[in-house]
Write a structure and sequence with these properties.
Structural class: mainly alpha
Strand order of the largest sheet: 1-3-2
Strand content: 5-15%
Radius of gyration: 20 Å
Shape: globular
């Protein structure tokens, strides 16, 4: 499997291959590069076709979706669920609060803890965005058969669990 895409006969590509470390696992590099590129393509397509026109970014959509699925969450839980830092949650909350999609509430027993919850407007927004977002998901996955989609989902779940485990150590 080639790590580099496109014109592999190009002199620059040949030169880069000669500079690769001897212990390079080209298959692992190809997996991570392909995964990153596919995720970026999906993110850009979803933002361009669905999210931006509704005042949402990928991050703010992810946060709204997680709150819609799981209910109110502490900011650190929301950060972990959305795969972002607490600082990113804090910045994204400015946008979400400006649009009245979410509110922050302090824990009455422990003022250090802050919870985020959807407002009615946020619930209506995520419910109206999901059908269009799902169309993007279907279009993105359409080159694969249903069986291939199941296999890929299983493999990606395994990768995510392993990566999550390594981060937790």
């Amino acid at each position: 499997m080639s790590l580099y895409y496109g014109r592999s006969d190009h002199p620059d590509v040949r030169a880069r291959r000669q500079r690769q470390p001897e212990n390079l696992n080209a298959e692992a590099a190809a997996v991570t590069t392909s995964l990153y590129r596919a995720a970026q393509q999906l993110r850009l397509q979803a933002e361009r076709e669905v999210l931006t026109s509704r005042g949402l970014s990928w991050t703010t959509f992810s946060m709204l979706y997680d709150l819609w699925m799981f209910g109110a969450m502490e900011t650190s839980e929301l950060a972990a669920s959305a795969g972002v830092s607490k600082a990113t949650v804090s910045n994204a909350m400015k946008t979400l609060e400006k649009h009245a999609y979410c509110v922050r509430r302090r824990d009455v027993r422990d003022r250090r803890r802050t919870f985020v919850e959807l407002t009615e407007t946020g619930t209506e927004t995520i419910a109206s965005v999901l059908p269009a977002f799902h169309e993007v998901e279907k279009q993105f996955a359409s080159p694969l058969t249903g069986e291939e989609q199941e296999i890929l989902a299983g493999l990606l779940t395994r990768l995510g669990q392993d990566a999550h485990g390594r981060r937790m150590e």
